[in-house]
Prior knowledge:
Blueprint: H1 48-80, H2 82-110, E1 113-115, H3 122-134, E2 141-145, E3 152-155, E4 163-167, H4 168-171, H5 176-191, H6 194-221, H7 223-226, H8 229-267, H9 272-287, H10 293-297, H11 312-319, H12 332-340, H13 347-354, H14 361-369
Helix pairs in contact: 1-2, 1-6, 1-8, 2-6, 3-5, 5-8, 5-9, 6-8, 9-11, 9-14, 12-14
Amino acid sequence: MFSKSKCPKCGARNSKERMTCAACGAPLALAPAKGQPAEVPLEGNPNLAVNMWLQTRMFLLVVLLFGILYGVITGIGTWRGAGSAVIYIIIAFAFLGIQYLIGPSIVGRAMKIKWVSEKEEPQLHQMVAELSEKANLPKPRVGISQLAIPNAFAFGRTQRDGRVCVTRGILNLLNRDELRAVLGHEISHIKHRDMVIITLISAIPLIMYWIALSMMFSGVFGGRRQGGGGYAALIGLGAFLLYFITNLLVLYGSRIREYQADLGSVNLGSMPHHLASALYKLVYGNARFKGSKELKRVEGVKAFFLNDPSQAWSEIKELSQIDRDMSGTIDYDELMELRQKKLRLGTGDKMMELFTTHPNMLKRIKHLSTLTV
């Protein structure tokens, strides 16, 4: 049977025999909407089914990407010899290895991070310590970015090198519960080793790009002397196509990791409507920076953010339909109402999502409505 000990609306503890919360009257067992996955009645992790589905999608994506790489490298190795094929892999992973090592320092400079002590930000440190303990992680370093644009991000080479940061803007925008939900999302990225995973699969489009350039160059300038220039140019064109396709697949993988981090925040004890409300506020907060120098400054590192600030302006219109009472937040009842609705995204919104590192915000909040505490 479903666990009813914790209210999904207010978080109050109730006896397992109760059908409604003694504190707020909210139902303690919620029926799933038509077409939505049922809440999973497992004591350890009520969202295990969602997690398994996300992990399966990610596994299949990784298999597909490395399958493409294997096919291309095998084909080139057969045609030009194994040595010329392997060199592309060595160069790509060497380049990404350097990027992986120096990446944290680059992010730190771009985001204007100041690392803060427990004396300076006791509440922030306390929330990070509690969440990392729940996630069975060493406590990450805590920093505050001096950027005014409201957001949060996490990075680091390993779980022991984890770093969680918030901007000045987000500290002035969110309440304590919303900020805790955001920090839970970022700590989940560290727990899931997302930086390592995305860096690893990003090597594949890079390899395709170098193969395409090499083959096109060989076909145009070396074809007459060596023969087979037409074949080389054709392979180069095919590699360019695969470069485009694998880039889209990596972006899809990034969106899966965002969904999984949202789930991770809920599994760490945050209410889904608190994270939904935080995302809603961030969209409005980021939209105010449209066309600003600060938004342009973070363009190269926005993949680290909780949401994509450059998409905020276009997301405002579709999100306004959720906030029925125009309070500027998304409460439990509004999130549950969204759960019963069927989303209708325009073709433009669907196409735009293909080229972004973050899911469409309305879809993302809809996904949160299906999760349980």
